[in-house]
Amino acid sequence: MTSELNEALQDIREIVGVENVVLIQQDGLPVASAGVWFSRDEVFSVASATCAIFGVARLVHGAFKYLLMETDTSKIFLASLPKNPHFFLTVTTAPRVNLAALFMEMKQNLSRITFLLQEHLEGRRPPLRSYSPDDTREVLSGFSVTDGIVAHNPTSYPILSLDRAHALGLRNILQQISDTIPGTHSAFFALNGGIRISLTGFTDDRFAAMSFALHGASERVVRTLRNASLQRVLCEAERGRHFLYSVPNGVFSLWVGHTNQKLGLIRLLLRHYLAEASQVLESLSRASTSIPEDLRELLMSGIAEPRLVLGGND
Q: Same domain, yes or no, for 198 and 86?
């Protein structure tokens, strides 16, 4: 089976602009790969990183067809196998790859790979792998691209101050997007500090939070694989398309149903509207997160008597 899988992956690899293709189990274990510069450790690092984003996308959308992450220097493409949720495919490409040709070739080969797996596994699920603490440290060390340097990437978002004028300006842009793009189900800005701006109030807070998490996980993946900045994410699901764009101080999310409007036209319209939104978002006042001095003193003190009382329901 390995030779047949490698042949199917190589067919995708031969598309102009495609650099590497990896077949991965749902537990992050690589099964087969085709590429020019991936070593064994690099393949395992790619599998581990993309497994994380695949899991977040499944939480947000359930079953989905593919997810595309785009940067200035590359595209990273995740595709779920038809009728087999235990495996998915990761494809890294050059920035100007022909997506139409890639999708057509992927469609043919995904079915072929699914048939090969079903034929040889006979319905058995892939083995899930467990790791000891030493194994985990060794895996994480594979994400370091420079020997002898320990990288720390703390996540910190500033607190935004949003006044009525800014909020109305952003809502006006959202209204234009909803009026211009047919089939719009949801459009909102998820800003740092938990601020969400939409046209429907706070009715989809869970979707907003998971969209922000999906974008954050995608950004970590592209930084790990390409050391690049994420520009946009497109998730193609059964119910429609989910667009995520990086904007100043947050993320823009658009969920549209399947319509006759071309994908390229939607992206062109979004580029125009998000340019206007970026001007508004860049003008927001920001403040660093901090702990009040009296609370800091209380939390950091070594006094024995109880001065902080916590309450909750059993």
A: no
